[in-house]
Design brief:
The complex is a heterodimer.
Chain A lengths: L10 H26 L3 H27 L20 H23 L4 H22 L19
Helix pairs in contact in A: 1-2, 1-3, 3-4
Chain B lengths: L22 H18 L3 H6 L4 H28 L1 H23 L7 H18 L7 H20 L8 H4 L9 H21 L6 H26 L2
Helix pairs in contact in B: 1-5, 1-6, 3-4, 3-6, 3-8, 4-9, 5-6, 8-9
Classes of the chains: A mainly alpha, B mainly alpha.
Amino acid sequence: MARTSLRPVAANEVSALQAALAAEHAAVYGYGVVGAYLSGTALTTATSDWVAHEVARDSLESMLRSAGRQPVAAAVAYRLPHRVHSAAGAMSLAVTLEDRVATAYLGVVAVTSPRIREFGARELLAAATRAASWRGRTVAFPGFPAGALSAARG
Amino acid sequence: MLGFRPETGVGLTGGFVAADRTRRAVLAAGAACLPILAVSGCKGVGALAAPPRPAPDVAILRAAIAAEEVMIARYDAVVRGSDGLAAALRPLRAEHRAHLAQLRSRLIVPPAAASRSAAASADRSAAASRSGGRSAAAAPASRSAAAAPALDGASGRGSGDAGSGSAASGEAGDVPAGRAEAISFLQGAERTAAAALLRKLPAVSPSLAQLMASVAASEATHVAALATAAGTG
């Protein structure tokens, strides 16, 4: 896999990738809940997004291992940001998961290695695209917490 | 968790005091940095040790700002030409305006060229007095050279949102007449703009890279939103 050639060396690169990996672990867990409440095309989309997060998780683990680092492990369970009882709640959870992943990749974009920065930007774009699809609208600054930028839509 | 931290990493790319690290040059450069630090909100010894290097970021910022102005002009043109699309396009145009405002806010060059040159001459006299009035030229001169493109950009563009309208409207290009064609035109423009931002990521500071990557991601989501707009309304 091409991404394994991205060898993080600097400490800030490793910590940014570990944070992204932790967010991907949470997303993989969360999409398991999301999918349980969906059906039809929404379930198909959720399944596809779930796979995308598994692929990203594997890439991050591979990048960290190639740098001689131990990738952070997934937690046994995660506290969901809100209880999910319905399809609408599941889609809302998917939005939250994608927003958190996007924020984590924004941290990867801040590293100095151009190729890791590019990887982070690509994954940020993918997370923003999934988030917009679940949210039903776009946002001005994907990855930035709402209100972090003064001009951002609240 | 990951808040917006303008200062974080700005100094990581190194400083513009590279050539001559004598004590005198460092002192002179320190004096020269003060107005920039005041504008950018940097504080403390750490910021002085690794001052921001404005030139590459400023040139790329100017290009990104110009691109957003053209994009807004294109949306304006399509909205004017098609009542049916206006409601769907306004939120996307509003996001481009937010992009533009945020990009402009990152320009650490004061908008008025006059106050800029006044500040610069004040720097030089301050630097001259600190270095004993002898050769204050080294660091301030290199800084002036680095800041020159920024001066050009600031003088042409004015401050705030004033410059976005008429200046860029001529750059909207020939917006196609048909509804589907106009949507396709905007989709192409969004893709091009996002790709241009991503190409320049390696050259900019970490902080600006985050903003540019986020703007590019937003523009990429507009492509799908435009497809939805074409199907409804």
